[in-house]
């Protein structure tokens, strides 16, 4: 989990809503060189789990994630469902990202079909 939220809030919310915690959390309270848009989180995840860039997909709705993914050579999907009321953001992210999904169902279909 790479987020602009602090680690304490991420752990609280994941525990409350899902009953599990992410395996790794890269929150906003980490040093600047270890948080989004720096590619460090993705590079660390790839090293930790022995993954190649093409074996990961960043799913996000903001440009800093695009910068992070791009600098790590990782594909990115635009999570447009949270930004549909902002056409300029959608336009830019559609152009920048490798994939774009208007709903979680579209993303689910892509990942599991």
Descriptive account of the structure:
The chain has a 3-stranded parallel sheet with strand order 1-2-3, with helices on both faces. The protein contains 5 helices and 3 strands; from the N terminus they run ααβαβαβα. It is mainly alpha-helical and 113 residues long.
> Which structural class should the secondary elements be placed in?
mainly alpha
Give the DSSP E fraction (strand runs of 2 or more residues). 5-15%
Biggest sheet character: 3 strands, parallel
The H/E string reads HHEHEHEH
Task: Please state the CA-atom Rg, rounded to the nearest Å.
Answer: 14 Å
Strand order of the largest sheet: 1-2-3
Give a short summary of the structure.
Helix content is 45%, strand content 9%. The chain has helices at residues 7-18, 40-49, 63-72, 87-96, 104-112, and strands at residues 58-60, 76-79, 99-101.
Tags for this model:
mainly alpha
Describe the secondary structure blueprint for this structure.
Blueprint: H1 7-18, H2 40-49, E1 58-60, H3 63-72, E2 76-79, H4 87-96, E3 99-101, H5 104-112
């Amino acid at each position: 989990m790479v987020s602009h939220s602090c680690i304490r809030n991420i752990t609280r919310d994941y525990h409350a809503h899902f009953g599990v915690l992410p395996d790794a959390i890269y929150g906003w309270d980490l040093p600047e060189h270890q948080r989004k848009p720096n590619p460090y989180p993705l590079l660390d995840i790839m090293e930790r789990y022995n993954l190649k860039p093409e074996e990961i997909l960043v799913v996000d709705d903001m440009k800093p994630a695009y910068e992070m993914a791009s600098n790590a050579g990782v594909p990115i999907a635009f999570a447009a469902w949270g930004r549909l009321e902002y056409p300029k953001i959608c336009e830019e992210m559609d152009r920048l990202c490798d994939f774009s999904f208007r709903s979680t169902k579209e993303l689910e279909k892509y990942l599991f079909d």
